């Protein structure tokens, strides 16, 4: 039995506390303070490319992800951002009236607030205020299950809190482990000075370095197998975990919930011609993902960086699917990955079961007009539709650079035949009049020398 960690300052995920239960009864107002823009956006990922209703709906989804009671959600069109309160004085007065009339306890602002703006809004509205970054951090803090995920979330949250050393709103002041406006990372830490927070951050960074070394050893052991890595990436709630479960027969948490998956999960899968690969599920991306989370979760995303094939899972039934795809591509570029590399990335157009017949026909037509290397695969991870096509596409990508050989195996050489089935892909199998087995096999470049040593007469077909 392993010895329990005796350090009191290490965050350990636990069952919901009284503060978590209180959160379910917290009356919440969600505000979408969106700038009104003129002309086209400067780049495709800009907020101007997004539908206001879809953006507000996403903010509500984030709040519901931690079981908050949404009393009202409303967009606010802004002509400019005010340094003191983000909103204009008239809108602040309007919101103060709503907060009082609806007994609002928490206001969620779907934007990034400075510490000064946050404090000024709290005083003016008479309620606790959090921004998008704080809300996402709270979700991450609740969902992380592994020690690595917990450390990464704590590091990100301390980075965020470093400039916000203020007490939580009085009715939410509770002492418990965890993070977020409902109780974390523990009010005692919020009350400490920056030096103590920095010391804790330094300890976490050292612990994460050890985690990275451990993960590097795991990756090295996988290379020695070696199995190719297939990583799922995509916008949160695009259906990655459902697809992961469908392809691997696993039971990873898959719900209609933003950020249902945070900790990386990997399973072995078998491809159509018998070869194996490692399938890795990863955290979902989102617009305005806090910078500190991108950095903190870089270790988690190392499987993505080193993957042989990336499956970019998109919810094509969502009205904002193009903007979501742009956000994912932006983060991939930040990780040093070219999202236009058709030799490595496959777009998976998921949730085909939710499409109307006309919309489906349009997508089929659009996909068919793309070059073969960039052609997306339309699937339904829920029903299983399109899985054979997707697996074939994955196998085709992995096969690039692999040689195909014609091999003859004597009927009594069962051990050699077994080696071929273990180490190569059997594309074709026949028998001749003498009982010999004639095979067409595809083998990874690293294994080709071993194949030729065992079968000196093997002939490369292509």
From TrEMBL:
<dbReference type="InterPro" id="IPR006073">
    <property type="entry name" value="GTP-bd"/>
</dbReference>
<dbReference type="InterPro" id="IPR025121">
    <property type="entry name" value="GTPase_HflX_N"/>
</dbReference>
<feature type="region of interest" description="Disordered">
    <location>
        <begin position="1"/>
        <end position="26"/>
    </location>
</feature>
<comment type="subunit">
    <text>Monomer. Associates with the 50S ribosomal subunit.</text>
</comment>
<protein>
    <recommendedName>
        <fullName>GTPase HflX</fullName>
    </recommendedName>
</protein>
<keyword id="KW-0547">Nucleotide-binding</keyword>
<feature type="binding site">
    <location>
        <begin position="281"/>
        <end position="284"/>
    </location>
    <ligand>
        <name>GTP</name>
    </ligand>
</feature>
<dbReference type="InterPro" id="IPR032305">
    <property type="entry name" value="GTP-bd_M"/>
</dbReference>
<feature type="compositionally biased region" description="Basic and acidic residues">
    <location>
        <begin position="1"/>
        <end position="10"/>
    </location>
</feature>
<feature type="binding site">
    <location>
        <position position="241"/>
    </location>
    <ligand>
        <name>Mg(2+)</name>
    </ligand>
</feature>
<dbReference type="InterPro" id="IPR027417">
    <property type="entry name" value="P-loop_NTPase"/>
</dbReference>
<dbReference type="InterPro" id="IPR030394">
    <property type="entry name" value="G_HFLX_dom"/>
</dbReference>
<dbReference type="GO" id="GO:0043022">
    <property type="term" value="F:ribosome binding"/>
</dbReference>
<dbReference type="Pfam" id="PF19275">
    <property type="entry name" value="HflX_C"/>
</dbReference>
<dbReference type="GO" id="GO:0003924">
    <property type="term" value="F:GTPase activity"/>
</dbReference>
<comment type="similarity">
    <text>Belongs to the TRAFAC class OBG-HflX-like GTPase superfamily. HflX GTPase family.</text>
</comment>
<feature type="binding site">
    <location>
        <begin position="380"/>
        <end position="382"/>
    </location>
    <ligand>
        <name>GTP</name>
    </ligand>
</feature>
<feature type="domain" description="Hflx-type G">
    <location>
        <begin position="228"/>
        <end position="402"/>
    </location>
</feature>
<dbReference type="GO" id="GO:0005737">
    <property type="term" value="C:cytoplasm"/>
</dbReference>
<comment type="function">
    <text>GTPase that associates with the 50S ribosomal subunit and may have a role during protein synthesis or ribosome biogenesis.</text>
</comment>
<feature type="binding site">
    <location>
        <begin position="259"/>
        <end position="263"/>
    </location>
    <ligand>
        <name>GTP</name>
    </ligand>
</feature>
<dbReference type="InterPro" id="IPR045498">
    <property type="entry name" value="HflX_C"/>
</dbReference>
<dbReference type="InterPro" id="IPR042108">
    <property type="entry name" value="GTPase_HflX_N_sf"/>
</dbReference>
<dbReference type="InterPro" id="IPR016496">
    <property type="entry name" value="GTPase_HflX"/>
</dbReference>
<dbReference type="GO" id="GO:0005525">
    <property type="term" value="F:GTP binding"/>
</dbReference>
<feature type="binding site">
    <location>
        <position position="261"/>
    </location>
    <ligand>
        <name>Mg(2+)</name>
    </ligand>
</feature>
<keyword id="KW-0963">Cytoplasm</keyword>
<dbReference type="Pfam" id="PF16360">
    <property type="entry name" value="GTP-bdg_M"/>
</dbReference>
<feature type="binding site">
    <location>
        <begin position="234"/>
        <end position="241"/>
    </location>
    <ligand>
        <name>GTP</name>
    </ligand>
</feature>
<keyword id="KW-0479">Metal-binding</keyword>
<dbReference type="GO" id="GO:0046872">
    <property type="term" value="F:metal ion binding"/>
</dbReference>
<keyword id="KW-0460">Magnesium</keyword>
<dbReference type="Pfam" id="PF13167">
    <property type="entry name" value="GTP-bdg_N"/>
</dbReference>
<feature type="binding site">
    <location>
        <begin position="350"/>
        <end position="353"/>
    </location>
    <ligand>
        <name>GTP</name>
    </ligand>
</feature>
<keyword id="KW-0342">GTP-binding</keyword>
<dbReference type="Pfam" id="PF01926">
    <property type="entry name" value="MMR_HSR1"/>
</dbReference>
